[in-house]
Amino acid sequence: MEKYWSWLLEHQMGQKVGVMLKLDQVRFIYIVFHAYTLCQQKIVICLFVFDGVLMFMNTEAHMFWWYYKSPYRTKDPNNPWPIILWLQGGPGASGVGTGNFEEVGPLDSFLKPRNSTWLTKADLLFVDNPVGTGYSFVEDEELLVKTDEEAATDLTTLLIEIFNRNETLQKSPLYIVAESYGGKYAVTLGLSALKAIQDKKLKLILGGIALGDSWISPEDFVVSWAPLLKYVSRIDDNGLAEANSLVDKIKQQIAAGKWKAATDTWGDLEGVISTNTNSVDFYNFLLDSGMDPVSMIATELVRQTPRKRYSRYLDSLRTSPGENGDLGLLMNGAIRKKLGIIPDNVEWGGQSGLVFTYLEGDFMKPRINEVDELLNKGVNVTIYNGQLDVICATKGTEAWVEKLKWEGLKTFLSIDRIPLYCGDGKITKGFTKSYRNLHFYWILEAGHFVPVDQPCIALDMVGSITRSSISTR
């Protein structure tokens, strides 16, 4: 792994160029690499690291981000090249690590080229969000965000810093694509960015929001868990009754605004589900948790967490959703060494548990109203869900969509779905339907990590979402 990464840097990337700009208390580092993949197509990789305080107004919070410029980028003014901002979930999971090396970036966690990279459809921007996630860190725990809105404010300031400096990027529509808890960041960021654009503080074209298996309505998801697992024979009537008792408790706590208590009960519910299903994988109900690297060490993590509420999703910080290498070893080893800018006392993912803890009061809050507001403002909203997911089950997603107050909802629900195919075969890979600015994709044979489980249809889907001008098939 180390040898391959060294080869990539030294023989495929040419000279590293570093420019440091100082803005008051801000340190801005810009690094450009020129690379060739094994297929001999040139990739220009722009790695930006923002290590400073502009968005936080103090010197003790640091945010890390990574930007790839696509080799397929075109300069057609009638069809501007898109940029995707990928937001990971958790809260506390790293977009720079998981989204980049495990799901949609140009290299996998063995540092081998990924044929299904989304870089063929758009430029890619990964952020370790919120601070405390991945390589991002705080020197004072009180600077960790406590609400989704605080995370959105930080991200908006980051976008101002990136886009206002670059006229080329200002011409490219930005699509915010989120996974899991990242969906809550995405919708709050979407509204925050729109306001900044209207106030002429942010020079940006917002192309749309895409919510992949997103934790938009926690109540609807926990309600869906036990009935889904009963239907697919993973839980019996006794387990169903025990789970539904806790679901009723969660619903009461949410109705009373007892958000932290609801988060605690959510953790208890996960435990009951695990016990009664012989440890079903919350990210793919066809698997046991030990079969999928995502949840391979979930049981041990839960034992180590005093209140037993640590999200299994954070396992992706240390293990892989696909058949890839050890992500924690990669990020704290080869990548960290070659970057050469991560402070010695910072461990990738070292503060992720704290990120979750500080957001536990927001964890169970819904963001349906924010989706409604985006739709009413004319923003394109795409929802996609994996058929086999449990934690953000399709049934739960459909339930919160039906609660939207958007005027086009009735028509959207009434129209027929269109089947989706990928490649040369005519095997159904999914379904989709669209009405005006709301779009929904049902992805078959995929769990929580759609780009990992169904890379072909996921790539086609993101090309459609971003209206990318390039066909790679």
From TrEMBL:
It holds the Pfam family Peptidase_S10. The keyword Secreted applies. Its main location: secreted. Its EC number is 3.4.16.-. One of its GO terms (molecular function) is serine-type carboxypeptidase activity. Keywords: Carboxypeptidase, Glycoprotein, Hydrolase, Protease, Secreted, Signal. InterPro entries: AB_hydrolase_fold (IPR029058), Peptidase_S10 (IPR001563), Ser_caboxypep_ser_AS (IPR018202). It is found in: Secreted. One of its GO terms (cellular component) is extracellular region. Transmembrane segments: none annotated. PANTHER family: RETINOID-INDUCIBLE SERINE CARBOXYPEPTIDASE, SERINE PROTEASE FAMILY S10 SERINE CARBOXYPEPTIDASE. This is Carboxypeptidase. It comes from Artemisia annua (Sweet wormwood).
